[in-house]
């Protein structure tokens, strides 16, 4: 919670907070006039929305309680995972989940005191663990993610953030060929969705990157993927560019929204009410309460993610590596080696658990026993997790007064730039070249 005195604005347009009526203006892009747009959230999705709206000629303000990249946009694995089209909820998850929760070496954790609150969501979440839904999800997400590297390059062009974007393969390492074969379901789904990958034996991969030695008998190299070398600095560089181009950044907590006849009329912030022609909500897991008030009834939870960083490591991999046995990713960062992964359900209020950090430390030590480094930095953050794993992208009401742009779960960094471009197109009255039905915020609500 940020107290009122902590709220401040940055930017060339010091017109905040907006006090005027939200709907007394006739401005529209189609009439050749700029619109005022507020984007709530300064992660990669919110900043992407803001930049694309700014490039369309609108007067844009970002509102965030802590500032750019203060949450998951800082703490993710840094992978542009264009092929991340297979959800966690695959067939058989219901049978596997209890054993994973009880194993200290499995990447699934639960704060047991949170279970009573979690159960309604969990029932819906596990209900999507079907082959039919996996195909539906894969087809939808392929349209959003397939050109992720190109979308990031377009977003970052001329911003100074280009230097953080790399185009390395995203690799999956399997300790045995049998472990790879056991994972064939996911690889067949990726192949069906049109993704290109190469399967090589461990000895061949060592010729490319010797750091993992004999740890992997089989490695899958996913093509047309990429990496952000410092996700936090990358998003901050984008936000700095947005402000330098005349955008406003308002550091203040949104406490509530005012809704009249099913449509938003104002944001209630710690610094007073704010209004604009359109408001975009990109608050990640903190979007739930406001979304429900706006009629967005998608079942939704916080999925807690963890990472550790090893500073000044003595060895550095050449490409991001998903260690299949532990479902965590080792990613080379600027001056750091990051190990990120783990799923924990425990809500937004409780602090981090010790067990996920310990698991990541053990796994890295086993994988890279000769690695030396200066220190270990630990981080826990929150991923926005809809029950069907599909992000919410689109208008929250028939008049398109407010928009949702959240719920990307594990692929917010990957899908953020394209999400921002889609939102900007929708506000401009353009029809994006993508089927948005799977991402419709109102898909579980009666219009």
Automatic annotation (TrEMBL):
Residues 36-426 form the FAD dependent oxidoreductase domain. Keywords: Oxidoreductase. The keyword Oxidoreductase applies. InterPro entries: FAD-dep_OxRdtase, FAD/NAD-bd_sf. Pfam families: DAO (PF01266). The keyword Transport does not apply. GO terms for molecular function: oxidoreductase activity. One of its GO terms (cellular component) is cytoplasm. Coiled coil: none annotated. This is D-amino-acid dehydrogenase. It comes from Litoreibacter ascidiaceicola. The lineage of its organism: Bacteria, Pseudomonadati, Pseudomonadota, Alphaproteobacteria, Rhodobacterales.
